[in-house]
Amino acid sequence: MTSTDQTRFPAGGVSAPPAGRRPAGRPSSRRAETRRKWYEIIGLTTPALVVYVMFVLVPMGFAVYYSLFRWRGVGPPTEYVGFKNYTLAFQDPIFLDALRNNAVIVFGSLLIQGPVALGIALLLNRRFRGRAVFRLLVFVPYVLAEVTVGIMWKLILAEGGTVDALLRSLGLGGLVQAWLADLDVVIWTLLFVLTWKYVGFAIILLLAGLSNVPHELTEAAAIDGASWWQTQRHVTLPLLGPTIRIWMFLSMIGSLQVFDVIWVTSVPAVRSLGASGTMATYMVDNGFFARLWGYGNAVAVILFVISFVAALLFQRFLLRRDIEGAITKGAN
Amino acid sequence: MATNPVHSPSAGRRPVSWGTPLTYALALAVAAVSIAPILYVIVGGFRTTPQIVADPGGLPDPWVFDNYTRVLTQSKFWQQAFNSGVIALGTTLGVVVLGMAAAFVLARYTFRGREGLYTFFTLGLLFPAGAAILPLYLMLRDLDLINSYYAVILPQVAFQLPLTIVILRPFLSAIPRELEDAAAIDGAGRLGFLWRIALPLSRPALVTVGVLAFVASWNSFLLPLLVLGDVDLHTLPLGVQNFSSQFSTDTAGVLAFTSLAMLPALFFFTLAEKQIVGGLQGAVKG
Q1: Which chain A positions have a beta carbon within 8 Å of B137's beta carbon?
Q2: What is the pLDDT of residue B5?
Q3: Which contiguous run of DSSP H or E holds residue A80?
Q4: Is Transport among the key words of this record (chain B) (predicted)?
Q5: Does residue A18 register a pLDDT over 50?
Q6: For position A15, what pLDDT does the model report?
Q7: Percent share of chain B, pLDDT over 90
Q8: Contact, B268 vs B215, CB < 8 A?
Q9: Do A44 and B101 touch (CB under 8 A)?
Q10: 20 to 30 Å CA-CA from A102: which of A222, A326, B21, B169?
Q11: B41, pLDDT greater than 50
Q12: How far apart are CA B54 and CA B44, in angstroms?
């Protein structure tokens, strides 16, 4: 896809050397020049730094502090309980269910979306008339708000709703389930909705990766008598490695934090029984709505630590080369 | 590739074929799965609830426009769309201004600690926004910002900054140094260079980060859910959620409200598809 190249300035590397300073004159003016440079540096970066530190980093620090108290959110926290909130969380079967549900979503997304997206991307990477339109359509679900998607599927999957009617008219009435109410089924229904919503994102990334595979290579393979499938398997796929790994990373982080679709699509009663809740919905249910602020913050810290450790491990072992300079530079 | 490989060494424009029927069949199936549910919601809005109950999969018969007019005239749709718009524009403006200023320094100034500062910002990419939501709420409450646009805008700007800086910095670094020297000879300082040369030149990248910030804000749900208790400040996602639980028996009305809430996003997407797709791809490529 050429749009990437249009939106970026001449393929500059991340670490392209910054432009140097202007030649300086006499020492005193050089000192004035240096001082001015620092004023500019501080003046231009401070607003971003302040907002970033204040609203991204500081809250997590507070979460750690609050998590050590039993606190209903009124007045300053006073009832110090140490790590009790953490042990309570890991003793609550509903929280353990949330962990399991998150695991289902993380691995389910990787195992289902990955192959599906790869297949569709390879399909839409073939040259045929109208290809651009198909690429556009496939991406539409990703642009819709999570809430809209959740409400939409809730209506479609309602008991006696469209999906049920469709299955019955196909003579598959035996497959009809209480999609969003059956405690054993609901997590898989949600996984389906999430897949529908996010597979377009994977496809877009993979198409970008595919557009970087030189035509010369696939053509050479074709001339040597390789079939379309052999070309994809032995030429294209290996070159897609970095794109696939970055998608896996983003998918994993998103799955660990998933909130909106779950919150909107599944009924609170089902969630409260642990059948469909995730760490994030559990955190908001307990911390915000039940006003167990200390406990909720402990869950926030657990969610944070799990995501952060997963991200670091993934980076350490799989991503190091792929986003060199963006995230990893300086961290290793 | 199914089309016969043409031996054009420069791999320029090769003929686009009609593809095999199988390719089309598969592509159509994929498109249908992506679009059918959305069409169902939009078309369903033109039916009455009894029609829907009687035959969930049917077409409107007759077509009724009452649901859509009802939502547009009697619900808080317009006010919620306005709130969503103000918050999304505020977020976009904040992200573009703060992100550009910081990325410019990180790209065009040489100073000790520059790479450290960049890493510090990129660390934010690893910070799950969802996890910070409770302490964020408490902080905004202490700052007395709850139930204001700022309560959504400021954190959204903050969480969007890392990605913005990652996209903008290589772009700004790639502006040839000769241009900066030329500006200096013409008497412009670094700030003049930023304002008169770097800013206009980075327009495509700024559009990309702006569009990404706008869409993220337009769709966001969790933060507004917690910090906008005041119904008059509710954004569209909150409105959809409320409407659907408040009037859950009015299926047709919910379908109409949901499709109306979708339309701005769909419209916006067709306008800025290149920037959204290109931005996501560009961000991932580094």
Answers
A1: 288
A2: 43
A3: strand A79-80
A4: yes
A5: no
A6: 42
A7: 48
A8: yes
A9: yes
A10: A326
A11: yes
A12: 13
Q: Which of A45, A263, A329 sits opposite B105 (nearest CB)?
A: A45
**H or E stretch at A326:** none
Q: Which amino acid is at B123?
A: L
Question: How far apart are the C-alpha atoms of A207 and A236, rounded to whole Å?
Answer: 11
- Residue A325, phi-psi category: left (phi > 0), alpha (psi -120 to 50), beta (remainder): left
Tokens linked to B78: 């317009």
- The CB density around residue A101, as the number of other CB atoms within 10 Å, is 26
CA atoms within 13 A on the CB side of A232: 13
CATH 1.10.3210.10 fits B79-233+273-285, yes or no: no
Strand stretches in A106-164, DSSP E: none
Classified as helix, coil or strand, A69 is strand
Helix (H, G, I), strand (E, B) or coil at B265: helix
B103 pLDDT higher than 90: yes
Q: Which residue from B49, B257, B227 is spatially nearest to A147, judged by alpha carbons?
A: B257
The answer to whether B155 contacts A55, with C-beta atoms less than 8 Å apart, is yes
Measure B63 CA to nearest chain A CA, in Å. Answer: 19
Backbone torsions φ then ψ of A136, nearest 5 degrees: -65, -45
pLDDT confidence bin for B165, thresholds 50/70/90: very high
Q: Quote the distance between the C-alpha of residue A255 and its chain's center.
A: 6
| Residue bearing the bigger pLDDT, A11 or B25 | B25
Q: Residue B16: its pLDDT value, please?
A: 57
Domains of chain A: 92-319 (1.10.3720.10)
Grade residue A80 by pLDDT with cuts at 50, 70 and 90: very high
Using the beta-carbon criterion (under 8 Å), do B158 and A1 form an inter-chain contact?
no
User: Facing residues of A80 across strands?
Assistant: A69
| pLDDT for B168 beyond 70 | yes
B61 dihedral zone (left: phi>0; alpha: psi -120 to 50; beta):
beta
- Sign of dihedral through CA atoms A214, A119, B167, A255? negative
Q: What is the pLDDT of residue A2?
A: 36
